[in-house]
Amino acid sequence: RYISGTGNDYMGSLGSRRVSLGTSSASSESKALPSAAELAKVLMSESKASEDSERRELLQNQERANKERDELRRQVAELTADVHQLVKQLHAEGVGYRERVQRDGHRGLGANARSAWRPTLEIAARQPAHVSELGHESLAELAMQGNHNAHRERLIREIMCVDDCSWEEAHEVLAEMDCEKEKWYWAESAPYRIGIAGAITTGVFATLLVFCKPIAVWYGINVAGEDLPEGVKDINEMTTNQVGTWTWSWMEPMIGTASFVLLCCQFTRAQVLKMNMKPYGEYMLQWRANRVADRFPQYDRSMIRSWAKHMPRAGITFIPVYERQVGLKGPTSGL
Prior knowledge:
Layout: H1 2-24, H2 36-93, H3 121-124, H4 136-144, H5 148-163, H6 167-181, H7 185-188, H8 190-211, H9 213-222, H10 240-274, H11 280-295, H12 301-308
């Protein structure tokens, strides 16, 4: 059937050629047609060439399939090894998968009946030493608990994604944000600094006015209008406790009133917090957070605001330590 069909096609092509040749010149009509043997030979050669081509294509497909199968087997083997390694690590670090060691002389399965588990050197070598070694989930949990270092690391990773830069290069952008955040630091922290200085100064002077003899006698005579106790001609004749008893008659109203005012302020602040209102500190931190977020709109606003709601630590000299000054390690994180 194949030979006959091919022969028909070939005869059709010969017929078309014969027509074209007949129209071209009269000399081509005198040429002899190919014999049946020659026609069969041509058909057999074409059939053999087609079978060879199909065989080569089949072999190529089979070879390609074998390579893909070998690659798939290799990937499955690697995946199996990774899964076994992951399960091994989970079992090593999971409390419920650790091997239980029964203590001698104890019965039952209670906590006192088993030996305490101790980490191996391999497990100890994998513990995180910096907040940057934590995963996204751990950072998110710490950030929800208000940990500033987690907010900082999340913002650094946000900068890396937006600017397509490395972890070290992201600190340069973080330094610019820190400059914007601390632009009004001294004005923002002025009430706290004034309060600290005023409280210390008031406490020292109040103590001196009560017990210091020279200051007490000067203030008592010139300001309070009180004379020395009866029978006392000089303040040096009195002891320190006696001076305190004498000065307390006019110092008590002032100290008591000041204490009551502070108590009222503290009570007011407690009620403000119960009503979920924001005190001065919260308003100040919110303002600086919004200012930084507006200055860098290309980054996630929530991450910037969470990071910016933090005051830098200050030393005994009241000089702040900005985050851009602590380098790549960042503020103390507890790790």
